[in-house]
Write a structure and sequence with these properties.
Elements lengths: L1 H47 L11 H11 L6 E5 L4 E3 L4 E5 H4 L4 H18 L3 H34 L3 H23 L1 H18 L8 H34 L1
Length: 248
């Protein structure tokens, strides 16, 4: 009887362990989908409509220039960059990566229109855009402090052997890696307005898109709006890494 009870208990423990393992696996899958999913989808959409490469007669840069001029934004420049597609409100510049700047694909045209949408927001004093600009400037100093602490904290930990150094390191990681994610999430309406409140109406008004491309352009504009968010989600993995380090 004793052996039977022991075997039953062992089986119960095995079942419980298997159940916990399954919950952990499901949790990890959900986290991976939530963190990596948006980024994978965004890149897949942008890549898919980058072909055919010569779909339009004008390049992304030419479309951006045309739309800016149509709105009287002749002072806004259109520049090529390696730093990702964006609009710089301080320098009054629409910046496109090389493939968008000189590209003639649907992706190049649509992303260019999205960034012009931000320029129009700036010109129209769109409040959420200015809030985001202020937030980015305000948090830039905090991020730099956090990065500095991250660099110094391991050496302080070795020298002082003070457990609190781990907490300081975690706080620095949160400042460095978490703030930008929060800023992008809070200002997500700005991105969707640039896509669907500005870019799509401009593309329709000036009849830039081929008729069959409009549904695809909507998908691209959604991807453009989610670009920063997907990058921010990826940065959250670094916060999880710091938490794992501190638990050791």
């Amino acid at each position: 009887i004793g052996v039977g009870v022991y075997s039953g208990s062992l089986l119960s423990l095995t079942d419980a362990a298997a159940e916990r393992l399954m919950i952990i696996i499901i949790g990890l899958v959900i986290i991976v989908v939530l963190v990596f999913g948006p980024g994978i989808w965004v890149q897949r959409v942008l890549s898919r409509y980058s072909e055919p490469a010569e779909r339009y007669d004008a390049t992304g840069a030419q479309i951006a220039r045309r739309l800016l001029d149509e709105h009287g934004l002749t002072m806004v420049t259109v520049e090529s960059t390696d730093g990702g597609d964006h609009y710089d409100p301080a320098e009054k510049a629409v910046r496109l990566t090389v493939d968008k700047f000189g590209g003639r694909s649907l992706t190049a045209i649509t992303v260019a229109a999205h960034e012009v949408g931000h320029a129009v927001q700036d010109d129209r004093k769109f409040a959420p855009l200015h809030w985001r600009t202020r937030l980015v400037k305000a948090t830039r100093g905090v991020e730099r402090v956090g990065a500095g602490v991250l660099m110094v904290a391991p050496f302080l930990g070795l020298l002082t052997r003070v457990p609190a150094i781990g907490l300081i390191t975690f706080a620095a990681g949160m400042m460095t890696l978490g703030i930008s994610a929060v800023v992008h999430f809070v200002t997500l309406p700005t991105e969707f307005d640039a896509s669907f409140g500005r870019a799509l109406p401009m593309l329709d008004k000036h009849r830039i898109l081929k008729k069959v491309d409009r549904p695809h352009a909507r998908r691209l504009l959604t991807a453009a709006a989610l670009t920063y968010v997907s990058a921010s989600l990826m940065s959250l993995l670094n916060i999880a890494r710091w938490m794992a380090i501190l638990r050791r």
